[in-house]
Amino acid sequence: MRYPKECVLKECVEAVIRPLETGDRPLLDAFYQRIPESDRWFMNYDVMDCAIMDKWFDAVKKGSVCSILALCEAQVVGQGSLYLRGFGATSHVGRFRIVVLPEFRQKRLGTWLLLDLIQLAMDRGLEMLRADLVAGLEDNAIDAVQKFDFFKYGQLKDYVRDINGNRHDLVIMVKRLHKEWSDY
């Protein structure tokens, strides 16, 4: 894939998508400080914890995580990650997460990031992509991935709790991948 990639969002806002670099830590820290705590709550790790972020950057260096950033006016406005397992029964399945600043949601930035993550997964020979999304809170994301042929693989009733302790269903969305876009 060629980077940096320029994209035009709704309302003619321009963004640049590129891979995460080791020097991006301050930009990424500033980005996550702007993400509401109620959104960060559903991530699999505490992005405000420096030790956790150090481990995450190490995983990027080792190649078990592929991460891309979307920048607008030198600030990170979106981030996408593809999590890979190099060994074992699920090594053919990648998981992903996309995080976008609230003011950049509904502008197609998530779509641009998702397309790149799908391509990265195909480039690595993965057979499936998986996303775990929270029903009732991430319904827009569920609708968006369905447009890219993700289907509901399962739903765990009352599996997660929000920041206020309310329970929500966890929806497992899966997409089967092909070797080339022309195979679809």
TrEMBL record:
The N-acetyltransferase domain, residue ranges: 15-178
Gene3D superfamilies per UniProt: 3.40.630.30
InterPro entries, per the entry: Acyl_CoA_acyltransferase, GNAT_dom
Q: Which GO molecular function terms does the record list?
A: acyltransferase activity, transferring groups other than amino-acyl groups
Per its UniProt entry, which superkingdom is the organism in?
Bacteria
- One Pfam match, given by its short name, reads Acetyltransf_1
Protein name per the record: N-acetyltransferase domain-containing protein
Q: Which organism is it from?
A: Desulfosarcina alkanivorans
